[in-house]
């Protein structure tokens, strides 16, 4: 899958707490309006819960918590982006909450800079690069590392009582 | 991707090989049972035949040698020995690896082939069967085509001077015997007193009852050279077709009197006269000097033979009828079907809910009908996936045999309840845990033969495996008559491993449960089979993954028993739907005993302890709202759902009990793999999600927090 990532120059941009993030479009399955999420007890806050997506159960995560951003209020623009990730070489769907979705951008490789090691306040592992579009910077996310099992287990341990 | 016919051959061959394994093991137990030998032969034969047809020449060639040997066994020229069974089992494994196209050294195959050849040649007879048998064509039926068997009565009365020209009557009769199943009765009544006897004359005549598929001509051929010197009568007494069986047994099997009349040995009138005196007809006839004892005997033989033939035919007809009604379907299609039925159940509950809200009577009656149909559909679909657990049992038979010889132990493996049915996926997932448990029983439980004799037990140890239905679960028990668990040894081991501390006082039973702890292995030396410390904890987790429970009982010196309780199916369960705040949860109904109210007064009276007084019994409970950290106010009256978990009564406090619910279990996906207290989710009629509570894990969690 990460091979495919290299082949696309299209990114879906979304807003989280005023900051612009980008996800490669070939990983995005659909964008849903915000619906009620059923919380799963005894899990980290990052794992918001599960939703019913046409008969299958799909987990939903809140990136605010992952990136240490303060939670933002629910608005009409709030949405859930369903993306496809690889866990143990198996494709699975996950919902990512976003304050709003903006647009799909074309970014040439020369418009993307390597992720800065510091200063973003984010775990640099989660960032594939910084996209420059007009005069804005877009943080391009490395989806698979966010959901890698070690990362999730580390989260689990934080919340373990 | 393989061609379809080849794939079909493979599938069939796998099935035949597993059948073959069963038959071989059965053959070892009953070496004289020719039916089993026949089964082995037919399995080999079919594998060879269809193997050759679909281009698996290596398999065909190899199997041919094995088949040759079994043909000799079938003809009674080689007897069934342990060596033969061993060799055949190896051959079966070899065919399997050929089938899987594994990289195997051709040497092993050659050696096996040579061994089989040697076996066959040691009994060098001309009776080696055709290399390319005629029944290459159809493999759907394992029974080689049998032409119709008829039963003949042959009356052979040689003239008294038949011996003068050198005819050997014995040879004629032997030839007759080879045509099929044949019984001979000699009539000796004509033998004169010794002073009148001419030793060069033949005074004896014979009646033969022959059951064979050869025609009348073949029988005449036997007597072709003596036809002029004897009186020969051939009559068909049983045509071999079933038509004559329709009128009932009494009419098809002729009475003795009828037979004698038909033969012209006595007339109906004579019989009637004799019948007036009530004695057995045979005795009476002899007494009356109408016929000789020999003639009676001959007729009796005929009666027996015909009866036997007809019984056999009936049996084989029943056997043949069975497989025709079954159908082979790929497992994935069934899984798809079950998934669809799951969706259907969900949609149906939505329909019922909408109908109830609409107040439209007609819609409601339709919804009810759909509900009834869906329920039937669900039960039927789940039933299709039910398989008898016996298929797994027979695999273990081989396992036990192999392990026993590895460990130099003598073990008898007994199974009960092989016909018990369980969901296919459950059976598949049960395989590994059962293998572990059986290995443990044999490795740690059963003692070496000499040790057993020393403590006064029979040399041969026994491992029992039984399965039985109990409500919506199946109970599987693995019991051995070995040395049992030693609580003292276990205790010391647990202390040295830091699982418990030296001060802990545990009952023997609690100590036994320690073997389920991770990294706990009691075998002093690690063997290839068990003792690596990854045994019982893996078993326990696998069983819990099936929502089952595991119990262990042991008596030092007497044996150990492991009991598994497994739910019948994994896909859809009956459950109790409850509410906490805005969230819905379901509890497996099989564990639920009752629901009682819990008021705020009750909570105050308990002084902070989570104990409820139910009709004088104190039952501990888990407040789910707190445990699951669900925000909101606690209602004045809550409900305790009292359940039975692992033999303990335990309550779960919820806001409201909604009612019974058909729960289609869905996984929460790999991201929630580590969540143990929730075993899945289900979609309710209104489209919201209810989470399925894993009662056992919650209990364990609560116990850990308390200690």
- Based on CA atoms alone, the radius of gyration of chain B comes out at 36 Å
* Major sheet details of chain A: 6 strands, mixed
The N- to C-terminal Cα distance of chain B equals 57 Å
Q: Overall mean pLDDT score of chain A?
A: 81
Please work out how many helical segments of chain B DSSP would assign: 23
- Outline the low-pLDDT stretches of chain B: 125-146, 243-251, 524-533
What is the oligomeric state here?
heterodimer
Largest sheet, strands/sense/barrel of chain B: 5 strands, mixed
Helix and strand sequence of chain A: HEEEEEHEEEEEEHH
Number of strands of chain A: 11
For the biggest β-sheet of chain B, the strand order reads 6-8-9-11-10
The largest contact between protein chains, plus residue counts on each side, is:
A-B, 27 and 25 residues
Distance between the termini of chain A: 36 Å
Lay out the secondary structure.
The complex is a heterodimer of chains A (161) and B (707).
Chain A: H1 2-7, E1 10-16, E2 19-24, E3 28-33, E4 47-53, E5 56-62, H2 63-66, E6 79-87, E7 90-98, E8 100-106, E9 112-113, E10 127-133, E11 136-141, H3 143-146, H4 149-159
Chain B: H1 4-29, H2 34-53, H3 57-74, H4 82-99, H5 106-122, E1 150-158, H6 169-177, E2 181-187, E3 205-212, H7 216-222, E4 230-238, H8 249-252, H9 256-262, H10 268-276, H11 281-287, H12 293-324, H13 331-358, H14 361-384, E5 386-388, H15 390-407, E6 411-416, E7 421-423, H16 424-445, H17 449-454, E8 461-470, E9 473-480, H18 487-496, H19 508-513, H20 536-545, E10 549-555, E11 559-567, E12 572-580, E13 583-588, E14 592-599, H21 600-605, E15 611-614, E16 617-623, H22 624-627, E17 637-645, E18 648-654, E19 656-664, E20 678-683, E21 689-693, H23 695-706
Helix pairs in contact in B: 1-2, 1-4, 1-15, 2-3, 3-4, 3-5, 4-5, 13-14, 15-16, 16-20
Structure description:
The complex is a heterodimer of chains A (161) and B (707). Chain A has helices spanning 2-7, 63-66, 143-146, 149-159; strands at 10-16, 19-24, 28-33, 47-53, 56-62, 79-87, 90-98, 100-106, 112-113, 127-133, 136-141. With 161 residues, chain A is of the alpha+beta class. In chain A, strands 8-1-2-11-10-9 form a six-stranded mixed sheet, with no helix packed on it. In chain A, a hairpin with a 2-residue loop joins strand 6 and strand 7. The longest helix of chain A has 11 residues, at 149-159. The model of chain A is unreliable at 1-5 and 156-161 (pLDDT under 50). Chain B is built from 23 helices and 21 strands. In chain B, the strands form five sheets. In chain B, strands 6-8-9-11-10 form a five-stranded mixed sheet. In chain B, strands 19-12-13-21-20 form a five-stranded mixed sheet. Chain B is elongated. The chains are: A alpha+beta (161), B alpha+beta (707). The A-B interface holds A 36, 38-43, 47, 50-52, 55-59, 61, 87-88, 90, 92-94, 147, 152-153, 156 and B 343, 346, 583, 627-630, 666-672, 674-675, 677-678, 681, 683, 687-691.
